[in-house]
Structure formats: structure tokens, C-alpha cells
Amino acid sequence: MKTRIITDSASDILEGEYENLTVLPLSITFGTATYLDGVDLTHERFYELLVEEDELPKTGQVNPYAFGQVLDEVHAAGQEAVVITLSSKLSGTHQSAITAAAQAKGVVRVVDSLNVCVGERVLVECALRLAEKGLGAVEIADQICTLRDRVCVVGLLDTLEYLRRGGRISAAAGAVGELLSIKPVISVHDGEVALLGKARGSKNGRNLLNQQVEDAGGIDFGMPVALGYAGLSDKLLRKYVADSCGLWEAGFPDGSLPVHTVGATIGTHVGPGAIALAFFRKA
Predict the structure, then answer these.
(1) Which among 93, 216, 247, 271 has most CB atoms closer than 10 A?
(2) Transmembrane ranges (predicted)?
């Protein structure tokens, strides 16, 4: 029996990007206008609005009805389903999936990725690989729950402005940080975004990213890897990749790294210019 993988748009995967994957959109509200993430609001248009608007947008979770509709379609097709959601500590989307799964027919398993953005993406991509091998929903969910502890996410912010606007740091701290060209390095720990350190300037920030990779024990290139950038340009990410070429040679000798755009769920808080890396640490 075929297993369908379902996720939400906080993974920054677009609907149609993978054949055996359904992506349900979160909602993004700017003022009185509400959009569906990745459907009628592209990542590019999101960053244009983010810069243009005075207030930060609000993000709405995927509701149980949306999950229920997809699960009904999966059951009608004679399939099983694995739902992988963004961290339950960051959104109510996981609970929506749990609610829908409890009422669904057939075999459905819901997995809390305890992650978001590229960190959620690599778990979804791993689940797709397992489904392609013919594994059932129970086996896939069990393996993803085991593997998620090996997922490492590190990110470098280019600006403190959006953390300040979102009330996550004080105006004074934001002003001092911008003046000193402070570049925060962040990660995801236990399902929540955490500050790993602060670097003076982009170069030191990129070095700190690589230090985090080394501290994690290196990248398992046999598993999915994802790089992401926030904003309308990948210039800062390309600079990081070029400066860290030795990091990728073992896994991507031809230089064709998997690069993706970061959408609204994280982009709202980090702003343009942020870069991120997700990988599985070596077992």
C-alpha cells in the first residue's frame, strides 16, 4: 500500500515540488489582506510586502478541516498517510493534524518535526525517500521520530531589525547591534529557535556557522541536506558557500548544492539576508 506524505508550508516546500507530497499552506496576513503561503503569496512577493509594510504580518496555522480533507482523499485512494508538521512549540498546526488524524479513516501517523524551514524540509525529504522504498506509514513515522534527533539547523541573520520589530529584542539592543554590525547565529533546539552566539560582521558569522557544523560531528551526506536564504537575493548564501567550499566537497563534488528560498514562517522574524543550513549529523 502506497504511503502519502503530507506537510505544511512552514517547510518552505512548494506544492507540486514532489510527486508523492501534499503541502498545506499556512495563512499570512498583512493588515486586512490574508494570503495562503506559497499559493497566492510567493516567497518573493512576501519579502516585497515585508519591506513595504509598516507592521509585521501575522501567521495563521493550518486548520483541522484542511488536514481532514486531504486525509479523506488519501483514504479514498487506498493509501496510508504520514503527516510531518512544523514544531508544536511554534504553531498550533501540529495539534490541527492530530485532531484531523483522530477522525480520519485508515492508517495515519502524525510526526512533530520539532523543527521549521529547512530543518522540517530535510525530514520531509527523508520521509519521501522511505515512502519510495515502499515502507508503510507506521514504519516511516517511527524512523522519522528516531532520525529527527540527528537534524541540525544553523542560521545567520543579516539584520536585527525584524527581531526588534517583533519585540524579541529591545529597541536599544537592536540599535547597538546594528551599529556594531552584530550577526546573530541561531539554531532550533527542542522545537524552539535558540540563539547560539553573536558575531561581529558577516565573515565571523560564517565562521561561527562552520564551527557549529564541526561541533555537531560533521554532515552525513547520505541524508538530505538543505540550504536556504531569506529575501530577494541569494548573494550572502553564495558567499557563504564559496567561503566554505571544503565543507561541501565530499557530498557535492560538482557544486550543485540544494538551495531553497525561506518563506514567511521564519522570514517574518529574521528578515531579508538571513541564511540557513540543515543537515543530519553523522550517526
Answers:
(1) 93
(2) none
Determine phi and psi for 82, rounding to 5 degrees: -120, 125
CATH topology of domain 151-280: Hypothetical Protein Tm841; Chain: A;domain 3 (3.30.1180)
State the pLDDT confidence band at 184, using cuts at 50, 70 and 90: confident
Name the CA radius of gyration of the chain, rounded: 19
Fold classification of 3-149 (topology level): Rossmann fold (3.40.50)
**Where in the chain do CATH 3.40.50.10170 domains reside?**
3-149
Would you state the cell numbers that stand for residue 45, as one nine-digit string?
512577493
Residue 167, classed as helix, strand or coil, is: coil
Sequence-ordered alpha helix ranges (H) in the chain: 43-52, 64-76, 93-103, 118-132, 137-147, 161-165, 171-179, 202-215, 235-243, 245-248, 264-270
- Classify residue 149 by its DSSP letter: G
Q: CA 212, 213, 218 angle in degrees (round to 5)?
A: 145
d(CA 73, CA 76): 5
Whether pTM exceeds 0.70:
yes
H/E run at residue 217: none
Q: What is the pLDDT of residues 25-50, one digit of tens each?
A: 999 999 999 999 999 999 999 999 99
Q: What residues form DSSP beta bridges with 82?
A: 5, 109
Cell, residue 151: 537534524
DSSP 271: -
Q: Which of 270, 196, 168 is nearest to 228 (CA)?
A: 270
